[in-house]
Design goal:
This protein is an all-alpha fold and 570 residues long. The protein is built from 20 helices and no strands. It has two domains: 422 residues, Growth Hormone, Chain: A, CATH 1.20.1250; 125 residues.
Length: 570
């Protein structure tokens, strides 16, 4: 039987993009729920599990870097975006099948590395799917399609999380990798293969204007940097959006590995954890559509503030119940069940899924409101990437904090930091006129100055960081954001300033990747058996932020008038 081309009809397109987003949610649910649950049962600590889940989100934080390659490299035979989707889904399935051979928990490092590769292909697939949607959906389809895509991701999370946990009782853990790979390939065979995308120009033609495809990708990356930078600092709303995206979008603990870690410790079996994940995913999917509809009727900023605040309430409730029962520090799995706390976890998780679902669609909509249509693909993708980075950082620090502070304090910090982004909402108004104002130059200069000072603040902090004790994870998270933001600022700023940056243009190119590599400070202790390398790493921990701060302070005194130029259409 010949399968239909779903892109040819309205209903087909909506179903196709819903299904494609299911394949994005399946690996996420599998890693954050099913795998995290099994790792906790096998004695892996919350900090290690938090780092594992954080690594799963990292490729999504840098998915903007894949965009130019998806745009430039294309196949006439398989279709421009369809070819990328086919290739990435096949690679996602293959990397999952390789995991069958990796023993846990002994091979957690290799396991994490392979899943990181797997999720890199997932992030590239996301870029291709979004590109296909932009070029396929008509304007009157996009609102409903976005709601269905988020719902599809939630359904995929349920399949990869609760579906796998339910199945493990009959097939075992290792077969679950085959099941997840088969689920992805089912979408490949029944949805992607029958698609017929508009014919793309040949590889040679696509690369002709820039001399080669690689040069074309490099040119587009530079264009991306310049256009993004101008759009981000051009208006107060867009500039506020950068900080909004980097802050946690509400309390996150009940949507990450902390929930499954706690469920295992409280005595819930795989079927119970699976049922919890299933119901929270279903409720979240329903309220995603409802939240977007309400924001259209009642206003995005008002409703989003309510949703984000509401996400902290179930977290605070669970914190209070745990504190009342004296359940503070993580406990080894396998102990007697605690029915009262299991009930509290169910109540908190279902309550949380309502507000999380309401938040998702509305948050994306408000980011669209402050995005410049001329560079929408560039600016909006970058906002989404920064939000994924915020999730990765949250997963990492919460795992460390749970072991250092205990669950109640971790939940309290999560509930407080989750509402900080609400303070930025008054400035995030829908932009209807110019997308650059007279203050853009000042914003660029002040950003360089503040980031430079923050980089230099690392020096006294690191010299005395042990004095903070259990507060180190929070400060570590702050400086991770500083280093990443500084690196991206340098890479984009050097392109905006051009020759106006002087000798600091080349310095920015060298310092930026070193600032990104500062995340490796968490692994310096592992070099204890190699004293020479460890000594060199400790010196670099001081020198790199010093260099970054120096370059940023120097750039803050340059002429940033170039940012006032209007971005060109992507």
């Amino acid at each position: 039987m010949r399968l239909p081309n779903l892109l040819a009809t309205r209903r087909g397109r909506l179903f196709a993009f819903f299904s494609l987003y299911v394949t994005e949610g399946i690996p996420l649910g599998f890693a954050a729920t099913a795998v995290a649950t099994q790792l906790r049962r096998q004695g892996v600590g919350p900090a290690e599990i938090g780092a594992f889940v954080a690594s799963f989100y990292l490729p999504w934080a840098f998915k903007w870097a894949f965009g130019p390659f998806v745009d430039v490299f294309r196949s006439k035979r398989f279709g421009h975006r369809r070819g990328w989707i086919l290739g990435t889904q096949i690679m996602m399935a293959l990397t999952l099948l390789v995991l069958v051979l990796v023993p846990l928990p002994a091979g957690l490092g290799i396991f994490t590395a392979i899943l990181l590769v797997h999720n890199t292909f997932g992030a590239i697939q996301d870029v291709a799917i979004d590109s296909l949607a932009v070029n396929t959906l008509s304007e009157d389809e996009r609102g409903l399609a976005n709601g269905l895509m988020f719902a599809g991701a939630s359904v995929g999370t349920a399949v990869g999380g609760s579906g796998v946990l339910f199945m493990m009782a009959y097939t075992g853990f290792q077969f679950s990798f085959v099941f997840v790979a088969a689920a992805i390939l089912a979408v490949t065979g029944f949805i992607v293969l029958p698609m017929k995308e508009a014919v793309a120009e040949s590889f040679a033609t696509a690369a002709q204007s820039a001399g080669s495809a690689w040069r074309a990708a490099s040119t587009e990356m530079k264009s991306f940097a310049v256009e993004s930078f101008r759009s981000f600092v051009g208006t107060r709303g867009a500039f506020s959006g950068v900080f909004f995206a980097l802050l946690p979008a509400g309390a996150m603990s009940l949507g990450l590995a902390l929930q499954s870690n706690l469920a295992v410790e409280l005595g819930m079996d795989d079927d119970q954890v699976g049922a919890l994940n299933l119901w929270t995913s279903i409720i979240s999917a329903v309220f995603m559509v409802l939240g977007g509809w309400l924001s259209d009727k009642l206003g995005r900023r008002r409703t989003l503030a309510f949703y984000l605040t509401g996400m902290s309430l179930p977290v605070l409730y669970l914190m209070w119940v745990l504190q009342q029962h004296g359940y503070v520090m993580p406990r080894a799995p396998g102990g007697p069940g605690i029915p009262e706390l299991v009930t509290a976890l169910w109540i908190a998780s279902l309550w949380y899924s309502v507000f999380q679902g309401l938040m998702y669609g509305t948050r994306s909509a408000i980011m669209m409101d402050i995005t410049n249509p001329a560079v929408a693909a560039t600016q909006f993708t970058a906002y989404m990437a920064m939000m994924n980075l915020a999730i990765a950082i949250a997963a990492s620090w919460q795992g460390v904090a749970a072991e250092a502070w205990g669950y109640p304090v971790t939940l309290l910090v999560d509930a407080i930091t989750g509402v900080l982004c609400v303070l930025l909402l008054p400035w995030m108004k829908r932009q209807t006129a110019a997308f650059s104002d007279a203050l853009a130059e000042g914003r660029a200069r002040k950003s360089s100055l503040v980031l430079g000072i923050c980089c230099l603040a690392w020096l006294p902090y690191w010299a005395n960081h042990e004095l903070l004790g259990r507060g180190q994870p929070m400060m570590g998270t702050f400086f991770t954001l500083v280093f990443i933001a500084s690196a991206l600022f340098l890479l984009a700023g050097r392109e905006v300033l051009g020759a106006g940056a002087g000798l600091w243009r080349r310095a920015s190119l060298w310092v930026a990747p070193l600032l990104l590599a500062m995340y490796g400070r968490y692994y310096v202790e592992g070099l204890a058996s190699m004293p020479v390398l460890r000594s060199a790493a400790e010196v670099l921990i001081y020198l790199v932020p010093l260099a970054g701060g120096t370059v940023l302070l120097a750039l803050s005194s340059r002429n940033w008038g170039a940012v006032n130029a209007q971005p060109q259409a992507a």
